[in-house]
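Module 6 notes. Inverse folding takes a fixed backbone as the condition and produces residue identities as the prediction. Think of it as a translation problem where the source language is geometry and the target language is the twenty amino acids. Below is one complete input and output pair. Work through it position by position during the lab.
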């Protein structure tokens, strides 16, 4: 796991966006794992700008991490809608895959989602945000670290946090479909971005705590090619923060 501690959140977003854009330049038919949430909004804005400036994305395929169960693509909470608004409205890709929150056969749909990832050759790069309770995708505390794509129940905390993101919309659906922790770990490369003080405690647990289902993001400690970008507020509780900053200076000097 490689931790990078940029000077401010703008720089973290800049670095994450650059990594994403370089991935697409180096492998124009990349298979990308995409996340949602506030952290990703600015990253997708950078990607849209790169596309306006000539970046070619027509051969990439994308797989979203998750979607709420029981709502359609037009619903205010829908990640189909989020992706349309923040990315696909302007960025054409060969094929985008997002779990279907209205599927009639959850088990079959989840299996088919996993199979589609395999058929595309696996995820080249998985983008991740970090939940305030240490979730990745919608793998809440208690998720098996080997879990695959499935339906999950959301915690009260996650529903509350996600409700405030779309004010005036009412209750957040209680269930969702998500790539499993095991599915995420199968990605060839992972990039997690953590910004702001609400991420300080889950980031500390994920990076410095034990690998445990109580903090699904801690499973990333196993991944051989995982980069974490954290702004100063998110990094403030890291016990080894100064050590990591020294390591960073070694690389920069
Ligand atoms: C949601 C998503 C996660 C995302 C998390 C963090 O719960 N399902 O995939 O990582 O939000 O979002 P934010 O970046 O807004 O803190």
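Target side of the pair, the amino acids:
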């Amino acid at each position: 796991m490689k931790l990078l501690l940029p000077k401010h959140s703008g720089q973290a977003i800049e670095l994450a966006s650059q990594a994403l854009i370089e991935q697409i330049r180096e492998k124009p038919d990349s298979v990308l794992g995409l996340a949602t949430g506030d952290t990703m909004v600015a990253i997708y804005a950078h990607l849209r700008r790169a596309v306006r400036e000539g970046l070619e994305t027509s051969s990439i395929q994308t797989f979203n991490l998750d979607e709420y169960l029981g709502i359609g693509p037009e619903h205010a909470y829908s990640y189909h809608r989020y992706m349309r608004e923040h990315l696909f409205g302007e960025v054409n890709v060969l094929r985008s895959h997002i779990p279907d929150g209205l599927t009639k056969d959850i088990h079959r749909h989840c299996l088919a989602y996993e199979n589609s990832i395999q058929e595309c050759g696996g995820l080249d790069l998985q983008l991740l945000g970090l939940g305030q309770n240490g979730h990745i995708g919608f793998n809440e505390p208690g998720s098996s670290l080997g879990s695959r794509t499935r339906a999950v129940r959301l915690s009260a905390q996650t529903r509350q946090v996600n409700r405030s993101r779309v004010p005036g919309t009412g209750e957040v659906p209680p269930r969702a479909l998500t790539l499993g922790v095991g599915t995420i770990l199968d990605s060839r490369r992972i990039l997690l971005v953590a910004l702001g003080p609400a991420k300080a405690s889950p980031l500390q647990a994920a990076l410095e705590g034990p690998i445990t289902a109580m903090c699904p993001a801690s499973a990333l400690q196993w991944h051989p090619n995982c980069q974490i970008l954290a702004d100063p507020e998110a990094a403030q509780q890291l016990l080894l923060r100064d050590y990591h900053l020294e390591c960073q200076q070694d690389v920069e000097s």
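Reference fact for the lab report: The longest strand covers residues 190-194.
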